[in-house]
Amino acid sequence: MQYKELERDAKLGNQRAQRILEERRVQLEVLPIRDAMGCSLTWCPNAVPKQLLDDIDRMYGNISITNIDTDISIEKESFHSCRIEGADTTQEELFDIFRAKRTEKKGDKMILNTYRAVKYLNISKKRDVDTLVNLWKIVTDGVCDNAGLSGEKFRNGVVVVGTHQAPEVELLDYCMKQFFQFYHEDNIESPYIKVGILHFYFVYMHPFCDGNGRISRLLTSDFLIRSGLDNFSALTLSKTINETAQEYYQALEESENEFHDITPFIQYMLKTIYDNLYEVLAGQEKYVVKHTDWKEVLQ
Questions:
Q1: What is the pLDDT of residues 139-163, one digit of tens each?
Q2: Residue 168: which domain range?
Q3: DSSP character string of 60-87
């Protein structure tokens, strides 16, 4: 759904754009989570094909993993997540980073911090604000950008990311309450859809002065694992996000629209999970579903 283009054309009097937006509006369902201004987020169930969810379930059920796969995946996940944030470390250098604990470059330290953050989540029982603050401290230890905006818990100033201005500092406690209430309630049947909502909302809040992207990706894998999908401990979703970074940011932008409809980002996350699972299974020579280019389908 090209919301930005349609909204622009509708304001200029384009009747086709107005019709498309109205047709979308009547298909939307309200989600049990509100933005900083108290507006309920929405989504369009009709825009999420059942086949996509079925294929994801089928692929997940056919993955074979070992403890070694999990250990390697944590290292690779840390690497790719930090590459998204500008770390210039190469894959060839990972051995020195993880075996010799090399921290000569900022990127090296970022990767090690992210690895430590995964280990922290593995032993931490709670998922609350204190958990997030501890996670932020680990992720940004010695590599914190915008440290001048660091507050006691969250950032203490306004941040703008691309076209998005994150909520005012005074609204972060409210947003965090919304986030964790939605996180812990039994409200969305599919964990793959719910994790897309959680990821969007965390990035929307942008609660910390730095590290928000890395933390959002850590929470994504962590939520799926805590939902009983243990094999995600051996997958590397950040690799696929890194490879489709432009689509990622576009999906975030399209999800800030007049209807508060975050379906574009839900679709992106589902496509990311699908592509990641398919790549892993292809490496295991298991072709359990016919490959679909969901980027072309999910318009």
A1: 999 999 988 999 889 999 988 888 8
A2: 3-297
A3: HTT----HHHHHHHHHHHHHHHHHHTT-
